[in-house]
Amino acid sequence: MADVKSILSQWAPRLLSILRIVTALLFMQHGSQKLFLVPAGQMTEPVALLSLIGLAAVLEFFGGLLLVAGLFTRLVAFVLSGEMAVAYFMSHASRGLLPLLNRGELAVLYCFIFLYLVAAGGGSWSVDHLLRRSKATLGSGEAYPW
């Protein structure tokens, strides 16, 4: 019978990648709704790009896209974590202390998931991982792997 700890340690980097991908896909929807009105919601026209909400939309959509791929994961996650902290304090905190009551729990959750990705990286299913592996291979004197 397989050792449970070895199975869990084998799957941890993969589950980290799944967490990153699912979070990023959900996060991208916020940006695509603001930029492209997809999925359809309460917005009737796209936001002005040269506004604070326009900047947020660009970060949400394109930052989410980079996170789906796992490219520049730590840097992008750091920026998005900061965006969600700012969003929480600008849009939610003034309505009350508790995130559940001020409807800011999603901003807090995104903020801390992104902060975790800053520390943990993108996992084994990421472009960052492939680039690190390729760099290690190239450093050993082998030819380019592509």
Describe the fold and architecture.
Helix 1 (4-36) runs antiparallel to helix 2. It contains six helices and no strands. The longest helix is centred in the first third of the chain and has 33 residues, at 4-36. The protein is mainly alpha-helical and 146 residues long. The protein has one domain (4-139). It is globular, with a radius of gyration of 18 Å.
Quick recap:
This protein is mainly alpha-helical and 146 residues long. It is built from six helices and no strands.
C-alpha geometry: globular
> How big a fraction of the residues is strand?
under 5%
Count of DSSP strands: 0
The residue-averaged pLDDT reads 92
Order of helices and strands: HHHHHH
Main beta sheet strand tally, sense and closure? none
* Helix content range: over 70%
What's the number of helices? 6
- Could you give the distance between the termini? 39 Å
Please give the radius of gyration in angstroms.
18 Å
Query: Structural class of the helix and strand makeup?
Result: mainly alpha
Secondary-structure blueprint of this entry?
Blueprint: H1 4-36, H2 52-69, H3 73-92, H4 99-102, H5 105-120, H6 127-139
Features:
single chain, 146 residues, mainly alpha, 6 helices, 71% helix
